User: What shape does this take?
Amino acid sequence: MSRSLRGVTRLLEQFPWAGEEPRLHRAGRCTVVVLGAGGDLTSRKLVPALFHLAQHGLLHPGTRVIGVARNAMDDAGFRRAMRHAVRHSDEVSGFRERDWRAFAARLQYVAGDLGDPATYAALRDRIEAAERGARDGEGGRLFYFALPPQVFPTAVAHLRASEAAPRIVDPARRPWARVIV
Assistant: This one.
């Protein structure tokens, strides 16, 4: 081993995590909203990744996933479509029906046009219903945009106007809301 490589190795060994497996922690309670849930990104990547986290106990039991898209379907139809996607995903190994049933109970769906304010009002109502029973200030809302970039400004404006994602000025105030584009 070269002298410079030995020096780097000694340096790395000083860090507390050196040689350890990464420690995984379960996330806190959260409502995950996927805007554009009828698309390929949701079925090939997002829902399989969330299912994987749930299989390994890394999602809080109170975490809910709400898909929003213009496809006309209900919660059961969304669950069927996502089951098919997860079952045939290259991202998921060890699909177990018991795990799927537990995960599917978290899935909800709102059908509507993302340019229509009524869609966001329906979404706000679904979020509030999903969050009933949570302790005050527990959890937050994560909005994932599986959308074309030209739709982002409209979606953000409607989320704000409907108060599905209210603007919170004080960072210490809960619940939190984040938009991922």
